[in-house]
Amino acid sequence: MKSRIVSSVAAIVAALLLQMTAAVAVPLLAVDFGRNVGNNPATPSLVQPGFNGMAGNFPLGPNSPPPSLSATFGAYTVTVSGDPYQSTDYSRVGFEDTAAAASGIDPSIRTLYEDALINNLDLNDGSGLNLSIQGVTPNAQYRLKLWSYNAENTIYSTPTSFGPRTGSTTSGTSGSVTQFASPLPTSLNDYSTTIIVSSTTNVLDIHAASTANFGGTRLNAFELNNVPEPAAICLAGINAMMLISIRRWRDAT
User: Taking all residues of the chain, what is their mean pLDDT, rounded to a whole number?
Assistant: First the structure.
């Protein structure tokens, strides 16, 4: 009888922990940026498995009005844009495909790293890229993972900062990725940073900009996840402690 109770409690605890892990592991939204090859929407670059694809042209559009691109994925709408060069020139903003230079990357992850949303500014004045994610819950915290890599950048090792956009309703932490061609990425954790953000509205506004050297700003992809609620973490801890206590009781008797 005692062994049945122990087994039942252990199964319940394991199921709860598994549900919590699964909820964190499955992203709310994952988007891989790519280019319409030849600026032809019928031939977008490949998409990393497990991600949604969002492809555009280079340049992104004409200078007036300032160009941007939006796409809807279920409950979320993603909008991207870039800052101008010399106040009105947006010709350096768009999407690139560096498939030839990225050919040495393992095929299982290559499609994420071989293309990106870019701003080819050779400035370090805070200009860069803008990412908006509409559809989030106001005041809820989110974990946002961002990738920045350029297989063609063999000259300028370029640190790139990611964080809440100044003047927006988004707040949170910031992170940095040093964007360079080598070493080649070997997993989907390379050339990435994760920040914790929230917004008082239903839109997260993120800004990316190089902070040194002249490699421009790159955003290959992003992944949006919930931040586990403290109550859920506490419950998992209590369940784990309960399992340990039961095991000790069983061993003692």
Answer: 87
